Amino acid sequence: MGTTRVCSEVSGSSKSLGSPLTVSTSLTETVNGFHEFKISGYSLAKGVGVGKYVTSDTFMVGGYSWSIYFYPDGKSPEDNSAYVSLFIALASEGADVRALFELTLVDQSGNGKHKVHSHFGRELESGPYTLKYRGSMWGYKRFFRRSSLESSDYLKDNSLLVRCRVGVVKSRTEGPRNYNIPVPVSNLGQQLGNLLESGKGCDVTFEVDGETFAAHKLVLATRSPVFRAQLFGPLRDRNTERIVIEDMESPIFKVLLHFIYWDELPDMQELMGGVDSQSASTLVAQHLLAAADRYALERLKAICESKLCEGIATKTVATTLALAEQHHCFQLKGVCLKFVALPENLKAVMQTDGFDYLKKSCPSLLTELLEYVARLGEHSVVASGHRKEMFADGCDANGRRVKQRLH
Which stretches make up the BTB domain (predicted)? Predict the structure, then answer.
């Protein structure tokens, strides 16, 4: 992270009167981020047409979204498809975003002879580049002569590998800090957890799958609107001292109760009896997601979604997709659909028991899945060029900077 410091002084007649000198610092630095973009099936991309492209997923750097655009037949008609073009685009709303860029075409032979275009570590006459709005781009119309590329070590197994570095320029002013009083880290969760473990003051008992759990009504009502209605609402249960929980296993309720008091999950390996496997962890997260939604514990629900997203696999994704639909987890649902729709995954997923469950419990999802597969096909390499008209060329004389708008 590069930094530039500029000191400013407040002085004058006050200094002659013995007033202290005050100092502030302007700190300008780059917030750096990296993305790797693999372009598979290069030979199939050739011939797609001048000005047509394939694009990476968006990635975040410095609070903005970015994307890499690769033009197999070049971006400009005057080059007659003799070159491939490569650009970085601002993919989110922003005005006058200043940044440094680096594009690297990786030598896949292992010899390390990468093709690198970088602004980092060298002086720029006019400073960092400025991108004016969403769709503004920086890059090279003549990034590499295509005939040379196809006989080089950059192309391996019909694939290219591009690494991108973006450094968003940020500035802030720091004043003097003449004192520092340390503030203890909050231990509220630990205090409430100790209260649960001590059993003192418990006024409600839950019976779950043959086990009993003691708790405090006020804590439960504070953390969960469902418990609040059940324990203190106008339609509360007649017996609020002993409540039977149906359709939930006792280990899951124990984790739920632990989270309500501690605001974090317990040691999951201990819960699973020392079994350290992704499938076991996914199964627990699936059950816990349903419990979190049942009691409107949104943070726990988000944690479960995150864990299920990280552990997506062929054997479990169909069940996770069904849960995401049933419990309104739209981000998780999108990730699952994207995973299942990939050609290398679809057939294997359809052969799992989870897919049979998905067909029975959420038949409408099959239609969405088919639509997603169709959309994926539309955005394949050949179809990706249909939006050519959105980009008007705005390169400078050297083809290094382009500013344009995405609609």
Answer: 202-269
